[in-house]
Structures are given as C-alpha cells and as structure tokens.
From TrEMBL:
<keyword id="KW-0813">Transport</keyword>
<keyword id="KW-0472">Membrane</keyword>
<keyword id="KW-1133">Transmembrane helix</keyword>
<dbReference type="GO" id="GO:0046872">
    <property type="term" value="F:metal ion binding"/>
</dbReference>
<feature type="transmembrane region" description="Helical">
    <location>
        <begin position="96"/>
        <end position="120"/>
    </location>
</feature>
<comment type="similarity">
    <text>Belongs to the cytochrome b561 family.</text>
</comment>
<protein>
    <submittedName>
        <fullName>Cytochrome b-562</fullName>
    </submittedName>
</protein>
<dbReference type="GO" id="GO:0009055">
    <property type="term" value="F:electron transfer activity"/>
</dbReference>
<feature type="transmembrane region" description="Helical">
    <location>
        <begin position="53"/>
        <end position="76"/>
    </location>
</feature>
<keyword id="KW-0408">Iron</keyword>
<feature type="domain" description="Cytochrome b561 bacterial/Ni-hydrogenase">
    <location>
        <begin position="10"/>
        <end position="165"/>
    </location>
</feature>
<dbReference type="GO" id="GO:0020037">
    <property type="term" value="F:heme binding"/>
</dbReference>
<keyword id="KW-0249">Electron transport</keyword>
<dbReference type="Pfam" id="PF01292">
    <property type="entry name" value="Ni_hydr_CYTB"/>
</dbReference>
<keyword id="KW-0479">Metal-binding</keyword>
<keyword id="KW-0349">Heme</keyword>
<dbReference type="InterPro" id="IPR011577">
    <property type="entry name" value="Cyt_b561_bac/Ni-Hgenase"/>
</dbReference>
Length: 172
C-alpha cells in the first residue's frame, strides 16, 4: 500500500550518512583491538605508553563520531521518513528486513555507548558486552549486505539502488 506523502526513496543526506557510518563501523571492527593495551593499562592503574594512547584515541574519537552521526541519522529518519519495502515482498521478508535494520540501529548507538561507559567510567561489564558484540555485528552486517546484493542481483528489486541514488519526494 502506498501512503500519501510517503517518500519514494532515501534523501542524499540519508544515503551519505548510511555509507559514512558503514565505513566507520568497518574501520572500528578492524582497529578495535588497538585500544586494548591502553585500556588494560588504565584498568591496572598504570600509565600506557604514548603510542598506545594514540591508538586508543583513534578508536574512541572514530566511535564517538559514529554516535553523533547515528543521532543525526535517526533525526533525519524521523523528519524525512523511509521508503516502503518493495510491494511484492512477502510479509515475512519485510519483518526480517525491518528487524535487521532495528538491530543495526541498536549497534550504531549501543557500541559507542557501551565503549564510552567502559573507557570513561571503568564499567568493565560494559567493555565485555562491547567485545561480545563484535562477532554479532560481523554476522548481522554480513547478512544485511548479502541481503542487499541478493535483492539487487537475484530478486532484481530497487532496494540497493535506492541506497545509492537519492530520490525525489512526493508532493505534499
Ligand atoms: C556497518 C555497516 C552497515 C550498517 C550499520 C548499516 C545500517 C543500515 C540501516 C540501519 C538501514 C536502515 C535504514 C533506515 O531505514 O533508516 C540500512 C539500509 C540499507 N543498507 Fe545498510 N548498513 C551497513 C552496511 C551496508 C552494506 C555493506 C550494504 C550493501 C552491500 C548495505 C545496504 C543497505 C541497503 C540497500 C539499505 C536499504 C534497504 C531498504 O531500502 O529497504 N548496508 N542499513
Ligand atoms: C562504532 C562504534 C564502535 C565499534 C564498532 C567498536 C568496536 C570495538 C571492537 C571490535 C573492539 C575489540 C573487541 C575485541 O578485540 O574482542 C573494541 C574494544 C574496545 N572499545 Fe570499541 N568500538 C566502538 C566505539 C567505541 C567507543 C566510542 C569507545 C570509547 C569511548 C570504545 C571503547 C572500547 C574499549 C574500552 C575497548 C576494549 C574493551 C575490553 O578490552 O574489554 N569503543 N571496540
């Protein structure tokens, strides 16, 4: 069903934010372990060496940038909305896609928050949760990317293209 005034696609800003956040998350997954020597040193009450602090700061500031971009992205979503799932998609697939997107949103907010609680406030349990999330994110993002490619090459829907090319808005 098409609702009046429902967006026909994502805006250029939504697309830019999606890909910048995706790139930063992948970077964080790759460099995540680099924060550990400094984190361990602080947890033991010792002073980390300068190189370890530098590596840790990169992880912290890239992660905090993800949080700011995630808040921005969510605000844009509330303002501009998102396009409906392809009309011929089954109810089950629509639910799976919506749940996957919800989980991805939880990660882009939850990772910086749990990391920040561990780093700034010494909540070790939050650090452990943050670490445990790593393999889960890899699986969810992998399935999400595979689903997008499957939609594009096999189902031949416009789902991937609409996350690459901005669409106009319906007239109010
Ligand atoms: C860490 C990486 C990623 C994160 C956190 C992420 C997150 C998200 C989220 C939350 C949405 C829902 C957008 C909304 O409704 O507001 C979305 C949509 C989408 N993502 Fe990703 N994504 C990532 C990587 C990727 C990759 C690698 C691809 C493609 C290969 C991709 C393709 C898409 C597409 C095509 C949509 C639109 C789906 C639709 O219109 O129904 N994403 N992504
Ligand atoms: C997008 C956001 C983030 C992602 C995807 C991410 C990812 C990761 C990964 C993959 C690890 C290594 C886990 C392992 O080796 O098993 C890690 C460790 C860690 N991260 Fe993040 N991180 C993010 C944001 C942050 C932020 C903003 C902070 C701090 C302000 C932070 C603090 C930490 C700490 C303290 C550890 C070490 C935890 C421990 O050893 O118990 N992270 N992170």
């Amino acid at each position: 069903m098409t609702v009046a005034n429902e967006p026909t696609g994502y805006t250029a800003m939504q697309i830019l934010l999606h890909w910048v956040i995706a790139a930063l998350i992948v970077l964080q997954l790759i460099i995540g372990e680099d924060i550990k020597p400094a984190y361990r040193a602080f947890s033991r009450g010792t002073e980390p060496v300068a190189g370890d602090i530098f590596n840790a700061n990169i992880h912290v500031y890239v992660g905090l940038a993800v949080l700011v971009l995630a808040i921005w992205r969510f605000a844009v979503r509330l303002r501009d909305g998102v396009p409906a799932a392809p009309p011929d998609e089954s109810v089950l697939l629509k639910r799976i896609a919506a749940s996957a997107h919800l989980v991805l949103y939880l990660f882009i907010f939850g990772m910086p928050i749990t990391g920040g609680l561990a780093w700034y406030f010494g909540f070790g349990a939050m650090g452990e949760l943050h670490e445990l999330a790593k393999p889960v994110i890899i699986v969810v993002v992998g399935l999400h990317a595979a689903a997008a490619l499957w939609q594009h090459f096999y189902v031949k829907s416009d789902v991937l293209v609409r996350m690459l090319r901005p669409a106009g808005r319906r007239a109010p």
